[in-house]
Amino acid sequence: MDHSRAPVLEAIEDYRRAGGLAFTPPGHKQGRGADSRVLDLLGRDAFASDLLTLNGLDDRRMSRGILGQAQELMADAVDAEHTFFSTCGSSLSVKSAMLAVAGPGERLLVSRNAHKSVVAGLVISGVHPVWVRPRYDEEHHVAHPPGPEETKAALAEAPDVKGMLLITPTDYGTCADIRGVARALHDADKPLIVDEAWGAHYPFHDDLPTWAMDGEADLCVTSTHKMGGGPCCSPPSTAGAGRWSSTAKNCWARR
Predict the structure, then answer these.
(1) If we measure between CA atoms, which residue out of 168, 219, 218, 177 comes closest to residue 198?
(2) pLDDT at position 254, please?
(3) What is the percentage of the chain residues whose pLDDT exceeds 70?
(4) What's the CA gap between 136 and 141, in Å, rounded?
(5) DSSP letter string over 14-58?
(6) Beta bridge pairs of residue 246
(7) I need a labelling partner for 225 at 20 to 30 A (CA). Which of 8, 61, 91, 93 fits?
(8) End-to-end distance of the chain based on CA atoms, in angstroms?
(9) What predicted TM-score, i.e. pTM, was given to this entire model?
(10) Rounded to an integer, what distance in angstroms lies between the CA atom of residue 97 and that of residue 52?
(11) Pair 127, 160: CB distance under 8 Å
(12) Residue 117's pLDDT is what?
């Protein structure tokens, strides 16, 4: 595949060159209706590129395949079969990931060093967490994610859980033994979700820690907005069951 291509950027460039004017949001009409003070601060290009996927770029009814092309390129870049972009950062994707594994009233192993988005997802979904404590590093005064032993102990105490949500890397850069945790869960026929929002760069260099999908995880959520140089928003989509990872802000890839 041609990884010099950027289908979404190319579509925006074509749209701007054609000089189209949409009668849909955003109300600033690609900067024509923006306050001059805002234009002076942010520049007109920020508004000129703020477009819906309708009206000349892409949509569900008359698809030009722009998002599909971009998702195929991302999937190929991370050696996955399928990729799906989503919005609202890793927070929305983590919530979706948990709901793909457990439902209201069901239990899920969750790393106790979880982001507030995870807690919000538990409240919204009705999934009951079984907290798995991280391992504290007395020498460096940081917490490491739970490992295989902690996972096995939690499974022994809560054999009815539907799977596990593991947060790695942490905000401090500490990483889990993903493969070990995955195998502990798979031995119990449970899936592993990895919140890898801070590890979007991991698939792209051999000297970096193993990223979740290469570590045998079943579903991975990442965010190129945090660590991969991507923008803060991408077009929305949905993802189904299977082995999934998420990269881009955000994208899900099925292995």
Answers:
(1) 168
(2) 43
(3) 85
(4) 7
(5) HHHHHT---SSS-TTTTTTTS-HHHHHHH-HHHHHT---STTTT-
(6) 252
(7) 61
(8) 18
(9) 0.77
(10) 26
(11) no
(12) 85
